[in-house]
Each structure stands twice: as structure tokens, then as C-alpha cells.
Amino acid sequence: MNPQASSPNHTTRPEPNRRFSVAPMMDWTDRHYRYFARLISRHALLYTEMVTTGAILHGDRARYLGYDVAEQPLALQLGGSNPQELAECAALAEAAGYAEVNLNVGCPSDRVQNNMIGACLMAHPELVADCVRAMRDACAVPVTVKHRIGINGRDSYEQLSDFVSTVHAAGCTSFTVHARIAILEGLSPKENREIPPLKYEVVHQLKQDFPQLEIILNGGLTDLAVMQAELAHVDGVMVGREAYHNPWLLADVDQVLFNDAHPQPTRLQVLAQMRPYIEQHLAAGGQMHHITRHMLGLFQGLPGARHFRRELSTTIHRTEQPLALFDQLFEQMQARLERA
Length: 340
Fold this sequence. Notes:
By secondary structure, this protein is of the alpha/beta class. The chain has helices spanning 31-40, 53-58, 61-65, 83-96, 110-113, 125-138, 157-169, 189-192, 200-209, 224-230, 241-245, 250-258, 267-283, 289-292, 305-313, 322-339, and strands spanning 20-22, 45-52, 74-79, 100-105, 143-151, 174-182, 214-218, 236-239. The protein has an eight-stranded parallel β-barrel, surrounded by five helices. The termini are far apart.
């Protein structure tokens, strides 16, 4: 991995391995999902949901920065456009032990646009550069940027190249690029993940033109073989919804992409390892579905998968003994798999 460029009074930490990462996804990649995902993959780089600078500086800091050490390697994604506020949050992220701080320049929702957060910042490369510079001066944690290949009205390759060049000059050496433009008016965030066409070739060109930078490809990746092929053109791949809905995809990542010969866990082993975590959460006053809602796809494609999803998404809300339901479900899935 490329070390970040040095600057006065700035020491750098080793870069986390971004060969494969799970994208930050609002309401999905919370600490419970990340704990679950880490049981399946030892090496995937995990990202938090986007957290705004305001939430960290003026809200429940322990909630927004808290995580289980088992989730590492873990990156914090920040949403904001005020360099001083981002610098303060980057320093707090370093103190909390995050492996990386990432700036969101890709989210297209109206709500974040109104606060000058996300993809709209692609129209302001100098401001993004100021933000990156301030963050890097405030911490030794690697500072990265996640962005689109463009936004409507600013979607030429020349403008994308200018954006990357300007932000790189501020010290950023790792860019995660969603290979779609963002349409900032008239499309929902969901539509912005589906309607603008994927253009992997644009990201490939970016890597060719900036060989000294680490370029991570994001957008539409669901198949491990395709990811392997893409790694001939870019330095890493970032997977979003597929890693959430089909979490067992992560089980092959360590061996296929990281050449780790460590034995893979089984789905039942992962399920069993989640039990003490769930028990601890319940003892602290939490609800079981806060965790199990992230686990619905664990048995996707196997006998009993529909039953597993139904029990954890519906029956769980009607029982007064959620752990007993969990234990019963474990035994049922074990029996189904043994018969298969």
C-alpha cells in the first residue's frame, strides 16, 4: 500500500489493507453488523456508517465512536465540510483507535446536500482538499476519500482527474471510487445506486493516470470472480449491499483475495459465536433484533434459509424468551444442514 505523503509535524501509521472492504451503509453497517461480519472474515476492512461531524462534536460521542475491538481493522467514515470540525473529529478517531478516517464525498441524498456533505462536494475540490489537509494535520491516522466518478453538470473525466489531483496535493493517497455519477436532483439515493450506469473503465483510467495512488473500485460488485478480475486494474474492491444481504460472501474473501490458509468458519460456528455477544447486549438492556436483523442472510441458498429469516425477523418480536428462540433455531438449522 502507498504510505501517505509526509508533512511537517505529521507521522503516519501503516495503511490498513484495502484489497477488500465492506462499504459504509447508513442503518446497516452498525457495530452489531461489523462484529458479525468480522466473525466471517478476518481481513476485510470494515467501515462505520457515515457519522456527521455534528453528531460527534455535539451528540453522544461514546455512541458514535464506540466499537468492539474485535471489529478491527475498522475505518470511521465522516460526513462534513468544515475543515476545523473534521480535524477535531479526525483527532478523536485517532484517540479512539480507528485504523483510518474516510471523508464521504459520494452520498447523493438531499438531506446531506443541504448540509454540504457528500457528493455535492465534488463541485468543490479545493474545499475537499482543505478538509483533507486539516484532517491530516490533526492526526496520524490515514485519511482517505470516497467519491463518485462525477456529479450531474460535472461529469467529465477531466473534472474527475482535476478533483483527484487537487485532493492528492493535500496529502490524500487513497481514493475509493464509486463508478457511477451522482444525480443530485430528482433521484433518490436508491435510484442513484441503480440508474446512472456503472463505468468501471473510468476508474481503470484513473489508476493508469495516477499510478502512485491507491484506487479502490466500488459499485455493483457482487461476484468474487469479477472482483478478482478487477484487481488486475485497481488496488482494491469495496462491496456494499451484497456483503450485507449475502454475508457468507465474506467467508471466501480471506482465502481467495488475501491468500489466508486459515480454516474457514462454518455458518453454525458463526451462529454459535454470536450467542454470547447477543446475551451481553440483552443484559445491557438492548433488544435482540438490534443484532439479529443483520444476520438474516447467513444461510442464504441453503435448506432452511427462509425459516431462519422468518424466525429472526418476525417470530423474535413475539417471544418473551429471545435467547431460547435463538437456541432452538440453532438446533433446527443444525438438523436441516445435517439432512441436506
